[in-house]
Amino acid sequence: MEPGQITREWLESLDVAEFIKIASMIHDIQREREEARHRKLEERRRGGSRAREKAHRGRSLQLERVKCGKEGCKKCSGEQPELHGPYWYLYRPKKSGEGRTSEYIGKMLPEELAREFGVPEDERRLG
After folding, report:
1. What angle do CA 17, 21, 26 make, to 5 degrees?
2. Distance between CA atoms of 125 and 127, rounded to whole angstroms?
3. I need a surface site. Which of 30, 71, 110, 114 has the fewest CB within 10 A?
């Protein structure tokens, strides 16, 4: 077996105690990743450390770093992933009244949104 490669045969060769120990570790890692994902979502919703938020008329403007979602992206899916951005996003309530929806604005904040949300000129283009 090559380093870093796990095969079904290797797993089947483990004794029961080793197998249970590995399964338990995998379960713990999955739980920790899920908790981290929930924390990041909550931070983003609250405008925490990953976002700069300005609110106006029920809408909010945020700077966010994101994964691009492209398969094989060397920046955000490599061994030491980095997020892209920051990019401006405009959030507004959904028409249904529950939750909110986002609109990608880009790296450069348009002048009209900058004026509306009071973003100084030197902060309009970040990243």
Report:
1. 150
2. 7
3. 71
Query: How many residues can be counted in the chain?
Result: 127
CA distance 62 to 126: 12
Cα gap 109→119, rounded to integer Å: 9
Q: Which of 113, 49, 59 is nearest to 86 (CA)?
A: 49
Q: What is the DSSP letter of 42?
A: H
Q: For tokens 């992933």, what's the residue?
A: 81
Please check whether residue 85 is in contact with residue 62, taking contact to mean a CB–CB distance below 8 angstroms.
no
Q: Where are the domains positioned within the chain? A: 1-46, 50-127
Residues 35-49, mean pLDDT to the nearest whole number = 66
pTM greater than 0.70 (yes/no): no
